[in-house]
Design a protein that fits this description.
By secondary structure, the protein is α/β, with parallel strands linked by helices. The strands form three sheets. It has a seven-stranded parallel beta sheet with strand order 3-2-1-4-5-6-7, with helices on both faces. Strands 10-9-8-11-12-13 form a six-stranded parallel beta sheet, sandwiched between helices. Strands 14-15 form a two-stranded antiparallel sheet. The chain is globular and about 65 Å long. The N and C termini lie close together (11 Å).
């Protein structure tokens, strides 16, 4: 076992506005809460203004023009700082982290947490070269990591098939949900749609790209809007915004759909919405779905690979509909509007807490920690 109070490094390309980045920020918070020294090591120090970096976390900017160019600097970092563990996320930060450990001849343990259903991600990647390179690098480098994990059972199974790593060698470690979720959700909203007596609001959150399939949500909302007065708000940014705006105009929904962009704190909107709707074509483990449940908001989701079925316990805590089926998604939203929602068992959500996730990471790494508050050894 490694001694407590060790330094742990989290490696990312940049701090963009995605769920994987938020998961790493949350993990940094969980580790510092337990007394660890934490470095967030960035290939390029972009996106810092998007996040509240936990107190005590050190930002290390390798200032590389691209993630592959950060390899020499990351090797130097490992030799100088000798962290007990290095946890990278997303491609190609993961591959660079594994290569840096090998080339530095470092005792640092590298834990790879695969965030997405990789076969789906590769298939839909916009660049053909990455469709070939990512599977190749995964098969070559992932087996060299000290610990390989998936953020859901589905991700682990998919990763095993793609990488050739036996499934029993791949751990499942859920991403931690936002630690101050309920406090953040109490912040006031200065928006007329959320005033008392206003029509119900459907909310979606995510990057505006193919994976999230917001066209299906917009088409579903169009059907719901014909049945009753309601509104749709989509929080997030991304390359598909012009396409989505054109679809909203085409369907005559301009007065009832808003896309305010990325928000540091989406939780008050999620809490006050009538329905949280997720229309993704594929996922890894959708944290926003868990967070909506934790806030007590009714949820409906596509039954995509992977994660929604695990989060919603096979439909017990929210409707699951086929991917791309706007009719089924509309029916599920209308069921909630009619008062036929699902009761949420808060004890079910304990497995997704920051404390549970952080301890699982430490256990996988063989790092012992004594939690005085809970009097437990991870």
């Amino acid at each position: 076992m490694v001694e407590v109070k060790s330094r742990i490094a989290l490696f990312l390309r940049t701090l963009g506005g995605g769920g994987a980045e938020r998961a790493h920020i949350n993990l940094a918070r969980g580790l510092t809460d337990l007394g660890f020294q934490v470095d967030i090591v960035l290939s390029a120090g972009e996106g810092l203004d998007l996040w509240e970096i936990p107190a005590g976390v050190r930002i290390v900017d390798l200032a590389a023009p691209r993630v592959s160019a950060s390899l020499p600097s990351l090797i130097r970092y490992l030799k100088q700082e000798q962290p007990a563990a290095l946890i990278p996320t997303l491609h190609y930060a993961i591959e660079i982290a594994i290569a840096a450990k090998i080339l530095a001849n470092s005792p640092t343990k590298v834990l790879v947490p695969e965030q997405n259903t990789l076969s789906k991600e590769v298939k839909h990647h916009e660049k053909k070269i990455h469709r070939r390179l990512i599977p190749l690098f995964v098969r070559l480098l992932y087996p060299l990591a000290d610990v390989v994990a998936g953020v859901s059972q589905g991700v682990a199974k998919d990763l095993s098939k793609l990488s050739g790593i036996p499934l029993d060698r791949i751990q499942v470690i859920y991403n931690p949900i936002f630690p101050d979720l309920h406090i953040k959700a109490q912040e006031p909203i200065d928006h007329p749609w959320f005033k008392p007596g206003e029509p119900p609001v459907v909310i979606g959150v995510g990057r505006l790209e193919d994976q999230k399939d917001f066209p299906t949500l917009i088409r579903a909302f169009s059907k719901v809007r014909k049945a009753c007065l309601c509104r749709l708000m989509i929080l997030g940014w991304g390359p598909d915004r012009p396409v989505l705006e054109a679809l909203i105009q085409e369907l005559g929904l301009a007065d009832d759909v808003e896309m305010p962009g990325f928000m540091k704190n989406p939780f008050p909107y999620m809490k006050q919405a009538t329905v949280f709707a997720m229309s993704s074509a594929w996922e890894g483990m959708p944290n926003v779905l868990i967070e909506a449940l934790a806030l007590g908001t009714q949820v409906v989701s596509t039954n995509c690979e992977s994660g929604p079925d695990e989060v919603l316990d096979h439909g017990k805590y929210g409707a699951l509909v086929p991917v791309g089926d706007s009719d089924a998604l509309a029916e599920a939203i209308l069921e909630v509007f009619a008062g036929n929602g699902k009761l949420i068992d808060q004890s079910w959500l304990k497995q997704f807490t920051l404390q549970a996730s952080t301890r699982h990471y430490l256990k996988a790494l063989g790092i012992a920690v004594h939690d005085k508050k809970a009097d437990l050894i991870c």
